[in-house]
């Protein structure tokens, strides 16, 4: 039975990144034949839609709580456009996502993940860990002398 990996697949059933890397290093051809064609990259809007459904978040909630224009929100929710990095972070904060889901959204949007050696990113990661709101995150970033998300 073939295993299918996708952005909408339950990540708890997937081999870990470390296991996949070991398989790749041990036998690149076997990795290619066994896994590479089964790993689907997914898309930002598909993953966001799944998260919105799981968290019971509407587009109007995103527009309001992430301070995004209606037109812009519908463009990335429909897959017509990818949002900028700060918009992805605002969405994640508005949806109260954890760090893993946030990093995945950033990756699928083609944006850099949050990196704790970058001061602003470290501050944002702190805010995610403390489950701060967007307003609280912006205040915190301003307090530490960093650019807020909006």
Fold blueprint:
Elements: H1 17-26, H2 28-36, H3 44-55, H4 59-65, H5 70-77, H6 85-94, H7 99-108, H8 119-129, H9 134-143
Structural notes for this entry:
The structure is a single chain. With 150 residues, this protein is mainly alpha-helical. 58% of the residues lie in helices and 0% in strands. The chain contains nine helices and no strands. The chain has helices at 17-26, 28-36, 44-55, 59-65, 70-77, 85-94, 99-108, 119-129, 134-143. Helix 3 (44-55) runs antiparallel to helix 7, helix 4 (59-65) packs across helix 5 and helix 6 runs antiparallel to helix 7. The chain is globular and about 50 Å long. It starts with 16 loop residues before the first helix and ends in a 7-residue tail after the last helix.
DSSP E strands, number: 0
Please state roughly what percent of the residues sit in beta strands, choosing from under 5%, 5-15%, 15-25%, 25-35%, 35-45% or over 45%: under 5%
Indicate the low-confidence ranges by residue numbers.
Answer: 1-13
Query: Whole-number average pLDDT?
Result: 86
Helix percent band: 55-70%
**Number of separate helices:** 9
Q: Whole-Å distance between the termini?
A: 48 Å
* Class by alpha and beta content: mainly alpha
Largest sheet: none
**Elements, N to C (H/E):** HHHHHHHHH
CA radius of gyration is 17 Å
Shape: globular
List keywords for this structure.
150 residues; mainly alpha; globular; disordered N terminus
In brief:
Helix content is 58%, strand content 0%.
